[in-house]
Write a structure and sequence with these properties.
Arc Repressor Mutant, subunit A, Four Helix Bundle (Hemerythrin (Met), subunit A), 2 domains, 9 helices
Length: 232
């Protein structure tokens, strides 16, 4: 195998390791504070340490692990304040995104938003609800002419997955979200970008308060696992 082929293969392995280890952290196969030892992971996944180290560095950049001297990678802890800070930043960027996206919406796009919201409001299963709201986000906040903004939003989606488990597992939070998204969809129907941005802010403010209440009953780090692939 040539050097470029070996490099490409290593990067493919590293990318797969990132996905697998990230998912194990989100679903708490690897608990907050747990040490992820290179030798054990290399044996578990039957890989060399080079792509494994690349994967762990990527996960550190995403906020899932902290690499400490002599201890290796440690799964980062979850706190209420961290979750709220991530949500605050996410809210600000989504407000920017909806201001740019909404003026280009077609009637078909607006109808699709309405259909997705209707499906959300009758969907009892948290796993399927998570898929539907991801589709809602992908449609409403799509600004392909702003690749840096899209990249930041994707990074925040990855960073917030551990905290969004609260939303998917809680009937109360899902109902709060649906009411706010109904207001947001109404603002979109009026084709008013500034009103839509204010509704995005209200959505995150409302969910933030609900999240604090939920966290009192289920502190971050003690949330029951939601299931692999569910918190997309």
């Amino acid at each position: 195998m040539s050097t470029p082929d070996r490099l490409a293969d290593r990067r493919t392995i590293a990318a797969r390791l990132v996905e697998t280890i990230r998912e194990n952290i989100i679903t708490q196969v690897y608990a907050p504070g747990q040490a992820l030892r290179e030798a054990e992971l290399a044996e578990q996944f039957a890989v060399s340490r080079i792509p494994l180290r690349e994967a762990l560095r990527q996960l550190e950049a995403e906020g899932y692990v902290t690499i400490q001297p002599y201890r290796g990678a440690i799964v980062t802890s979850m706190t209420v304040d961290d979750g709220l800070e991530i949500a605050e930043i996410h809210s600000a960027l989504l407000q920017l995104a909806v201001r740019r996206a909404l003026p280009r919406f077609s009637d078909a796009d607006l109808q699709r938003l309405t259909d997705l919201l209707a499906a959300l409001e009758i969907e009892p299963d948290g796993h399927r609800w998570a898929v539907l709201i991801s589709e809602f986000y992908a449609l409403l906040f799509n600004v392909p002419d702003r690749p840096r903004l899209m990249g930041l939003l994707q990074a925040l989606r990855l960073l917030s997955r551990r905290y969004r488990v609260y939303l998917y597992m809680s009937d109360n939070l899902r109902r709060l979200a649906e009411r706010c998204l109904r207001d947001l969809a109404d603002a979109c129907q009026s084709r008013d970008p500034e009103l839509a941005a204010r509704r995005v802010e209200a959505y995150f403010d409302t969910l933030g308060r609900g999240y604090r209440d939920e966290a009192r009953m289920h502190p971050p780090g003690n949330v029951p696992p939601f299931g692999r692939g569910s918190a997309s």
